[in-house]
Protein 1
Amino acid sequence: MSLRKIVTVTGGNGGIGYETVKALLTSQKPYHILMGSRSLEKAKFAIETLKEECPQATNTVEAIQIDLTSDESIEAAFKQVDDTHGHIDVLVNNAGATFDIDYTAGKVSLRECFNKAYDVNVTGTNVLSYTFMPLLLKSSDPRLLFVAGLSAINQAGKQYFPTPPQPAGWPKKIGFETIGYRCSKTALNMLMLDWNHKLKADGVKVWAVGPGMLATNLGGVPELAKAMGAQPASLGGEILKAVIEGERDHQVGKIVVRSGIMDW
Ligand SMILES: NC(=O)c1ccc[n+]([C@@H]2O[C@H](COP(=O)([O-])OP(=O)(O)OC[C@H]3O[C@@H](n4cnc5c(N)ncnc54)[C@H](OP(=O)(O)O)[C@@H]3O)[C@@H](O)[C@H]2O)c1
């Protein structure tokens, strides 16, 4: 077995996923990274960009087509990894999407807004984790990460809502909607807890990792994210790398954030 740990990062072609691939590529520890991307064209471009940005990197990266909404894509990805590597050491369930902004813009229905978010963020993430599990269980130090976000019920209990209080009457005028995404990400926490429970005897370390509000293409509104004070996406890469490299091994089964663990 190669000394390089094999890490799969879904949605590795952009945003926090890209920064995670980059952080691992330039790590002192040896990795071979499987950059999941629903578009191989986008992955190719991202890998070219990484080569320009990190010319000294000795770690390696390879593209793998993964569309979380397609069982065929997930099965094909499993077969490719099984045939080529036979195992993985880390699965970073990073890929995610929101459709609330499309809903507000009238591009999708309310039902589509919720179902599409669940399909990517919960259902597809679970199908991928399930399908890749035999590969992960072959590792001597298996790690399973879920990228959390806006997902702690307790924050809502403390009146944390991204929308201002609404006057009485109907319809409500919601300029910036998040609830489809937020519900799906809250469900993702349950997925993390459930996998953590099921995999105890297998020695798999499982976490949800909250990267904080970062400037990415999430929702297709990068300017809005920046205007709302989003921080550099590289911070997401740093915390995910820290978890992969053992800095949060005492916080297994929690939502880890930069300042510690999230109260949920
Ligand atoms: N940005 C934040 O403030 C923030 C905060 C907390 C948590 N998060 C979470 O961080 C993760 C990464 O998001 P990001 O902020 O980096 O956003 P992003 O820039 O939009 O990146 C999302 C990634 O997921 C991929 N993706 C979308 N739908 C997919 C599908 N059906 N199958 C496979 N891949 C798919 C995207 O691919 P394409 O390039 O093809 O669209 C892209 O690679 C998400 O889980 C998000 O919920 C983000």
Protein 2
Amino acid sequence: MGFTCGLLGSPNVGKSTIFNALTSAGAEVASYAFTTIEPNIGIVKVPDERLQSLARIVRPEKVTPTTMKFLDIAGLVKGASKGEGLGNQFLGHIRDVDAIAHIVRCFEDANVAHVEGTVVPKRDIELVNAELVLADLETVEKRINKAEKLIKSGKGEGEKELNLCRKLQKALAKGLPARSLRLEDEEQEELIKEINLLTAKPVLYVANLGEENQGQSQWLSAVQEVAQKEGVPVVEIWGKIEAELSELPEGERATFSKEMGLERSGLEKLIKAGYALLELISFYTTVGVELRAWTVKKGARAPQAAGKVHTDMERGFIKAEVISFGDFIAAGSESVAREKGLMSSEGKDYIVQDGDVIQFRFNV
Ligand SMILES: Nc1nc2c(ncn2[C@@H]2O[C@H](COP(=O)(O)OP(=O)(O)OP(=O)(O)O)[C@@H](O)[C@H]2O)c(=O)[nH]1
Ligand SMILES: [Mg+2]
């Protein structure tokens, strides 16, 4: 699995439209707010040009890309923490995602109502972010109560959690996201992971651009301005156009995309931004008849990467035989790369590099 990504935002901003563009899952889309109630879940193959280049050389029977999961949830309105709209309980559906894609409406359409009446990206972003902060505040306050009880009863050690939660409470009460808090040590890092706050997750903004041009560049600039201040990346997607394109057969889709000047699909752009945001890299294995792509965190060592393939491979790790992607392509085959001395034998401290083609040697 590459990573999991939760799509959220105000109602009627095109979350499900973009979800369909990304996954071709055919989720319900309609011009009224709160169309989505139960979450839509879609798993997609990660488009990977390097994997295709390797496949042309290796000619395996089977090519397996890495996958990623998208979750499309209900819209979040002002006052959701107090039960407005569909409330905020449904945010629980995206508690466990790796990253959040915050969809922002940058299109005008008289037939598609806007819950706040007009398209004002900065206000919309702020409203949604404020609700995320309030949802986290609820979580943190519950944990504070619990920790206090625990300490009082003398049954456990809750001080460390209590300290961190109080700090979080302070930051959130000021409207700041949990990710803005400077953590003191690894213990706090572990704790904050366990508390699993929404505003602690990495986020990117997705500007949903319309097919019509008027006003659009100004709305996009507004999103970029907010994002820059927060140090958050922005991905531009033409939601409706791409959702329509995703319904076409693959060949036609490529032709139309080119004609419309869409060099990269929203999926490719979002995945690229997500990998950068989460500091993920890909490596490749050829085992038997299968060429396969895998995802690991940048900085992962060879045994950890082996563990992605199989836990036995991590446990019994002996060495990794590595050819860089560039060398593999230049050599034109694994055997030539070997002959030319382009394959290196690496031990357990080797840090996997993006694009590495790896054969793991292990004891069973
Ligand atoms: N004109 C235009 N309409 C769009 C665009 N993207 C989405 N829409 C329309 O906006 C309406 C709402 O789209 P949805 O994808 O259902 O929006 P949502 O954010 O999932 O809405 P909820 O589930 O109700 O929160 C639909 O009528 C879409 O066709 C766009 O880029 N341009
Ligand atoms: Mg929806």
Protein 3
Amino acid sequence: MTQHNAGPVTGSILVVGGGIAGLTAALEAAEAGHEVHLVEKNHYLGGRVAQLHRYFPKLCPPSCGLEINFKRIRQNPRIHCWTGAQVEKVDGPPGDLEVTVRVAPRYVNERCTACGDCVAVCPVERADDFNYGLSRTTAIYLPHAFAFPLRFAVDRGVCPGLECGRCLPACKVDAIELGMQPRSMKLKVGAVVYATGWQPYDAARLEGLGFGQAKNVITNVMMERLAAPGGPTAGKITRPSDGRPPQHVVFVQCAGSRDENHLAYCSAVCCLASLKQATYVREQVPDARVHMFYIDVRTPGRYEDFYTKVAADPNVTLSRGKVARVSELPGSGNLLVEAENTLTGELLRVETELVVLATGMQPTASAVAHDSLGFLRVDRAAGFGAAGCARRPADVAGSVQDATGAALRAIQTAGRPIHG
Ligand SMILES: Cc1cc2nc3c(=O)[nH]c(=O)nc-3n(C[C@H](O)[C@H](O)[C@H](O)COP(=O)(O)OP(=O)(O)OC[C@H]3O[C@@H](n4cnc5c(N)ncnc54)[C@H](O)[C@@H]3O)c2cc1C
């Protein structure tokens, strides 16, 4: 492991997590004149937003918003991005922190042009985590079509390395380095913003809802990938069992959220996400019917218009009902959804072709101070701030506002930047 020691830089800021919140905090601080180190564990920036098909309420593709941020990063020499990297240790008082960062090898260097010649010769496959396992890639892979940086990486968990080595002669620019080593570096910063985001709640833990047992039960994050042009079906929403477009789709709200046995809180975006996904279905399959079972529909503030517009579609039905069971019907791959109206106790049964579980957002596990639900606490005494879904469940607009506030607090803690 090589060591790289950066000299002390008063006023510099570390941002952990390169999702929309981390990107925003990093850009706000850098554009205010501070040196910023942005540490992201994936081999690309953008976080979960990069995996969405469209944003509610305007239904524009997230790639537009991300691209603007990437352009600002490319143009700002004060931001230093470390992908495939994680913080190992933070020592010292606020204003004078020493951070140890470990950068994992990518096995592909900056010469990569993303031509894909390596893919044609790679004999090993892996599940594509960007598509939530709905497709496969070769062991050498491009994280996704709009990845930043746009460069391949090798999954050494499955790649046999030099024992195979077929990719090496296929690469005309000598970009593949199967012997690349992890490296460790020390950074001097004045403050840290944690923007480590969220992960989807594990749907396999939702007993009775059929995930992992019935093929046509998927989660909301999978639906984003199914609808995305760069996704596993090139943007066609189809049933996993037979590849047919579904004529009837049921959305199960609060799949895990607002449940003491799973996530005790409201995940804040799932109702809007399902309403948005109802528009994906309706756009692609003109006669399709969509049925959403909810406990309460939560679309606060200015999102009310979006709710009203989607709910006005005669092919979209919204029913109050806590779904207790989803079972596969023999032969067709269809599903029987059984729910109970939470006010009247009435039992509702609906047959459908595809079930989407609106699983909630769980804060990414962290060693930093957090509350009983796992959300990070702002710890000003230690020089630590938190932003985005690491701090609370939030939409993109809320995460961006949060991050701007966290950047301001980090600037106050880090002190004035010194420029040579
Ligand atoms: C199904 C679904 C659909 C949604 N659709 C919309 C929508 O249409 N509009 C909208 O406004 N919101 C939507 N959201 C919410 C949106 O995804 C979040 O608001 C957004 O992702 C929050 O960004 P973030 O940066 O806080 O977290 P993330 O996007 O999770 O980014 C966090 C980043 O931190 C990195 N990271 C984590 N741990 C570490 C570590 N230890 N070290 C280094 N890096 C780390 C991660 O790899 C990731 O890149 C949706 C959510 C769901 C579940």
